[in-house]
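Hi R.,

Here's the chain you asked about this morning:
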Amino acid sequence: MTVSTPTSGRIFNSYWVLATLLILGLLAGCGNRFEEQIRNTHQQVKANVDHLKTQLDNKQLTNALLIKKYANKIIEQKPDYADVAGLMAREAASDSEAFRSLNKRLENVNLAPTDTESANYNLQELQLINAAADVYEFNNSLADVVNTLASLSDGTLPVIDVPASQQSAAKQSNALVGNPAYGNWKQDSSGRSFWEWYGMYSLFSNVLGGRSYYDSWSSRPNYSYYGQYGRNRWGPGSDVTRNYDLSQRHPTKYNKPSASTKSRYSSTTSRSSSYGGSSKSGSKASGSSKPSSYGSSSRSSSYSSSRSSRSGK
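And the predicted structure, written out as tokens:
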């Protein structure tokens, strides 16, 4: 029978302590590596968001200028809509709901991920935010505000940046319904999903004649830049999932998910399941089916600023 001596016990304990310290050191090293990479990427994206703010504050976006022009026209034509038009006019600057929503997403990024899965998730969210903060893309998204104002003008103001086949749909005053910067889909006591505006945007309930219920709203043509393009390119994963699920519960010929929507939804739900069911942003905003993995040598090129060529539409 072998008997352990005090000396052998101390040696074993020493090895155990050393092994534990090595493991903890490796984990800490991985954590530091992730944190450094995500912080570097975050800084690049924040620089682009800050540049967008400067462009907005300096009135460099053409659609922002149109918002001001259209809002003033509505106030002149229809004094009863002055509050709504004034609210829309705020979307032409950096204190807009759209820009604040973008900043909030950036603030919510985890800057200290401790594993590859979490690091990839936060990198992909930064990619989406970066795509949304592109000056050219953000200017395009403001067309929904312009067209909302146009819809209140009784045809005196034209809708903009809309395909010919979608002109009549764009003339309805519902281009902001479905955009998570302005509200959210909720369920009433009967289980019907309705659009709930945030804060002051509840004024639109009167403009639209009451609540917008998803089943009736989705049963007729609806056009918005965010709904047609923005959601899949750079929208939050939670919004992609929510709208896809609603379209499955209330299928109509007008809300059939496109191939890009299905691809984005598949990516989002796959990643959500690995995060315990949370619904967060998914694939890379450029539309590629496989977002670059963390640590890719091409990672930094995804965040190069387009300032020199895109200072408006």
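The radius of gyration is 24 Å.

Let me know if you need anything else.
M.
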